[in-house]
TrEMBL record, chain A:
<feature type="transmembrane region" description="Helical">
    <location>
        <begin position="164"/>
        <end position="187"/>
    </location>
</feature>
<dbReference type="InterPro" id="IPR001851">
    <property type="entry name" value="ABC_transp_permease"/>
</dbReference>
<feature type="region of interest" description="Disordered">
    <location>
        <begin position="1"/>
        <end position="43"/>
    </location>
</feature>
<feature type="transmembrane region" description="Helical">
    <location>
        <begin position="316"/>
        <end position="333"/>
    </location>
</feature>
<keyword id="KW-1003">Cell membrane</keyword>
<dbReference type="GO" id="GO:0015658">
    <property type="term" value="F:branched-chain amino acid transmembrane transporter activity"/>
</dbReference>
<dbReference type="Pfam" id="PF02653">
    <property type="entry name" value="BPD_transp_2"/>
</dbReference>
<keyword id="KW-1133">Transmembrane helix</keyword>
<feature type="transmembrane region" description="Helical">
    <location>
        <begin position="53"/>
        <end position="71"/>
    </location>
</feature>
TrEMBL record, chain B:
<protein>
    <submittedName>
        <fullName>ABC transporter substrate-binding protein</fullName>
    </submittedName>
</protein>
<dbReference type="Pfam" id="PF13458">
    <property type="entry name" value="Peripla_BP_6"/>
</dbReference>
<feature type="signal peptide">
    <location>
        <begin position="1"/>
        <end position="25"/>
    </location>
</feature>
<dbReference type="InterPro" id="IPR028082">
    <property type="entry name" value="Peripla_BP_I"/>
</dbReference>
<keyword id="KW-0732">Signal</keyword>
<feature type="domain" description="Leucine-binding protein">
    <location>
        <begin position="43"/>
        <end position="388"/>
    </location>
</feature>
<dbReference type="InterPro" id="IPR028081">
    <property type="entry name" value="Leu-bd"/>
</dbReference>
<comment type="similarity">
    <text>Belongs to the leucine-binding protein family.</text>
</comment>
Length: 399, 424
């Protein structure tokens, strides 16, 4: 949220009203270059627009893949989990931050992706298909399933708003265990669906461990999804989502079909959540309702709020926090050597408490989230003399 | 756009700094194992995943504490082959997704020698492939699923419980012997646990021999609909493929509905002291009078194993409530200690597996262990216990499954030797 406002206020000429900005013209303005707050440093200043995005995405991906060589297998496994979670938080931050629709049920969309992946992969295994073909087909099946559910939710979302929409999505994630239990023949109840083990391709077997291979797959899928999300965010749809979020009536008057934009936002975020769920299923070789609880769903929301609403970088930070914080806390509890009864009571519960505390702290101290806090520091340090009024960081959400 | 040199330099500096940090944190992939993981000159480290929190915690969280207490006892007697046993317990909340994470942590971070007694069918199923792909001994899984007995496919996995098919068959046989004209039904968990008890019961009663089969899901703590359906179907003997918490829930719910059938529970959900914890001191003896359950461990209140375990429980487990879980956890510890003792002075993962599949382990059950080259099942038979006046004990009937037929056998309890510390 902070980001959108910052941009709109620093470059009034570019986006005076949402309508003007979003007017369907054959050549869209390139928001990226001109909307950037002045003074922010950047690499490769000549490159702009889509080519720049692709170059940056490719370099980050190469960097992440290279980074896996520095990590031991367990860290790589965690990296794979972070990447998969990042898929989901990336879409969610777009949905909440840009289009202003709150989804508390994103875990259910991830689960849809996971089940879509697992069921397709098992069907393909029985049909004798394996390797890359099985992965790609299952991934697309997962994405299609999640997108369909996202579309349906989006259709409801376009008619509902605020707490009502949140309620619908909440119901979805609460109903998940019941659905898997009622259709136990397909979803195998609480036990979940297991899939065949997918090892390292023979050519790489001497070089890398299976966890590193899983991290690579996760990073690649996540890179594609996130690049797509960034492109959407910077493109026409992103602008319209901001317009609808900013002032729906004004956006409508300006010719933006707000209903369509909302449905599109939901579908886009469902696609990324589904991809995340599929990758998670690939990494852990199973999917079960226990992995996608209400608590996890809420954690995803906490992650994007803590990271910074609407910010892709914030979503990455949030994904890291969701995956690593419970582990760090667990390690910390083990290290302190508490009585076993206290330890038992704390394990599992303390993480939730810390997340709650973190949420309160971050919203109170840095309303723009961790990403917003970093950005503010950057702007300040590059313009020490500039009066703060020139670069206002909003403390209130829009509208 | 701004192209100040300063920020550029800063970015380069930051990148260099983070690259250095990453390099410092560097680790190799894939790691080459020089020595046996988890074994030093003084210690052997084993790990487990247990439901210390979550829906199954109340029924089972005391098992790992009991195992740990037994290991502490053995360590105080000098350990096994001069090594003390360290037992790392990780909580998975009975959630397969968490099991994935904690077992990887045990294997990769804590570098355990073996996974011992990982608890739960749905949870352990999630790591079965992983452990076997990584060639980690996966000993004495705390579940009666027949999945663990697949030596060809899962050479590293061994069961501990009598399998659910055996238990289902034994319960159904006991029902057929004692109540030949009764309507027999079943309430089961909606996973392999339930499926296999049904399979066992149908070995005896024939397909369709169960008048009513109801299933529940662990994530839903309400079985009123299922119990109501069983009452409506006129069930007189209800076989239970339930974990302890749901056994209590089923019995309690039925009582609330004014429905008092005979309950025949598998060993996983039939521990009387644990059920008392759920139902309360005042109600439990009334609700559970005549409660039938299977067991394959030395559980008789006046047995020598019970006396030893009771003593260890008082000394090393802060005198925690003594129940079937305590006996179970300590029996697991005893069996592992025995396997470790037989694995030689310098145990390796291979020698440990050889020791288990040698067929020479005796354990402390009421029937001989079935481990061997082509069998990874622990017990192929169970004894019947009943609750009378608040005391659960064997009735003297013992069944074994021999090639699809249930036969009555004599129990062969293992005598206690060397104060319960296995010697090589």
């Amino acid at each position: 949220m902070s980001e959108t406002t910052t941009r709109a206020e620093t470059t009034p000429a570019e986006a005076t009203t949402p309508g003007e900005a979003a007017r369907a013209s054959p050549r869209m303005p390139r928001p990226l270059r001109t909307l950037r707050p002045p003074g922010t440093p950047r690499l490769l200043p000549r490159l702009t627009g889509l080519p720049r995005l692709l170059v940056v995405a490719a370099s980050l991906t190469v960097l992440a893949v290279a980074g896996t060589f520095l990590l031991d297998p367990y860290r790589n496994y965690q990296l794979a989990l972070v990447a998969a979670t990042f898929c989901a938080t990336g879409g969610l931050t777009l949905l909440i931050g840009l289009s202003g629709q709150l989804s508390l049920g994103h875990a259910a969309l991830m689960a849809t992706g996971g089940y879509g992946y697992a069921l397709t992969a098992n069907a393909l295994t029985e049909a004798g298909v394996d390797g890359v073909a099985r992965f790609v087909v299952s991934l697309f099946a997962a994405i299609a399933a999640a997108a369909l559910l996202g579309l349906l939710l989006g259709l409801a979302g376009a008619r509902l708003s605020g707490p009502y929409l949140a309620g619908v999505t909440l119901a979805l994630v609460i109903a998940l265990p019941a659905v898997t239990s009622v259709f136990g023949g397909v979803f195998r109840g609480d036990q979940g669906v297991q899939i065949a083990y997918d090892g390292v391709p023979p050519a790489l077997r001497a070089l890398i461990a299976v966890e590193q291979w899983q991290a690579w797959v996760s990073i690649l899928v996540t890179a594609v999804v996130i690049t797509w999300l960034v492109a959407i965010r910077r493109g026409r749809l992103g602008l319209r989502m901001r317009a609808v979020h900013g002032d729906e009536t004004a956006a409508r008057l300006a010719g933006v079909r707000s209903g369509r934009v909302k449905v599109a936002a939901f579908t886009v975020s469902a696609v990324s959540a589904g991809a995340g769920g599929a990758v998670l299923c690939f990494v852990t070789q199973s999917v079960s309702p226990g992995a996608y609880t209400l608590a996890f769903s809420l954690l995803l929301v906490v992650a994007v709020v803590v990271g910074g609403l609407g910010s892709i970088g914030g979503a990455a930070v949030g994904a890291v926090v969701v995956v690593l914080l419970p582990w760090l806390i667990g390690t910390g509890i083990d290290a302190v050597d508490l009585p076993s009864e206290v330890e038992q009571r704390l394990s599992g519960n303390l993480a939730v408490l810390v997340f709650g505390g973190l949420l309160i702290l971050v919203t109170a101290v840095w309303p723009g989230g961790l990403a917003g806090a970093l950005r503010r520091r950057r702007i300040r340090s590059s313009h020490p003399a500039a009066p703060p009024a020139l670069h206002p960081i909003p403390t209130e959400p829009e509208r | 756009m701004s192209q100040h040199p300063a920020p550029h330099r800063r970015i380069v500096a930051a990148a260099a700094a983070s690259a250095t940090l990453l390099a410092l944190a560097a680790c190799s992939t894939p790691g080459a194992a020089e020595s046996t993981p988890g074994v030093t000159d003084e210690t052997v480290t084993v790990g487990t995943h247990q439901p210390l929190t979550g829906p199954a915690a109340a029924g089972y969280s005391s098992i790992s504490a009991a195992t740990k207490a037994y290991f502490d006892y053995v360590n105080d007697q000098g350990g096994i082959n001069g090594r003390t046993i360290e037992y790392v317990v990780k909580d998975d909340g009975y959630n397969p997704a968490t099991t994935q994470t904690v077992v990887r942590e045990l294997v990769q971070e804590d570098e355990v020698f073996a996974i011992l007694n990982g608890l739960g069918t749905p949870t352990h199923t999630a790591v079965l492939d992983y452990l076997n792909q990584n060639e980690v001994p996966d000993l004495f899984v705390a579940s009666g699923s027949t999945s663990w007995n697949q030596p060809e496919e899962y050479p590293y996995t061994f069961a501990f419980n009598a399998d659910y098919v055996v238990e289902g068959a034994a319960l159904a046989q006991y029902a057929a012997d004692e109540r030949p004209d009764a309507t027999v039904c079943l309430l089961g968990q909606d996973d392999d646990f339930g499926d296999e008890v049904v399979e066992g019961a149908e070995l005896v009663l024939g397909t369709g021999g169960l008048a009513e089969v109801q299933r529940y899901s662990v994530s839903n703590q309400d079985v009123t609909a299922q119990i109501g359906a069983m009452q409506a179907a006129g069930c007189e003997v209800n076989l239970l493929a339930t974990v302890n918490g749901f056994t209590a829930l089923a019995v309690g719910t039925a009582a609330k509905l004014g429905y008092f059938p005979a309950w025949y529970s598998s060993s996983s959900g039939g521990d009387y002291p644990t059920l008392v914890g759920f139902l309360g001191e005042d109600l439990a003896p009334k609700l559970l009078q005549g409660f039938i359950s299977t067991n394959y461990l030395p559980f008789s209140p006046d047995g020598e194993w019970t006396a030893l375990f009771r003593q260890i429980n008082d000394e090393y487990n802060d005198g925690a409530p003594f129940d079937g879980n305590t006996v179970y956890g300590m029996s697991v510890g005893y069996l592992f200690a025995e396997a470790l003792a037989r694995a030689g002075d310098d145990p390796t993962r291979e020698s440990l597996l050889d020791a288990v599949s040698s067929g020479e382990l005796v354990g402390n059950g009421i029937l001989p262990l079935a481990f061997g080259e082509d069998s990874h099942a622990a017990y192929l038979g169970v004894g019947i216990t009943t609750v009378d006046q608040g005391v659960q004990d064997f009735v003297g009937t013992t069944y074994a499954l021999e090639g699809g037929d249930v036969v009555t056998v004599e129990a062969e309890p293992v005598p206690l030797e060397n104060e319960g510390v296995p010697a090589p």
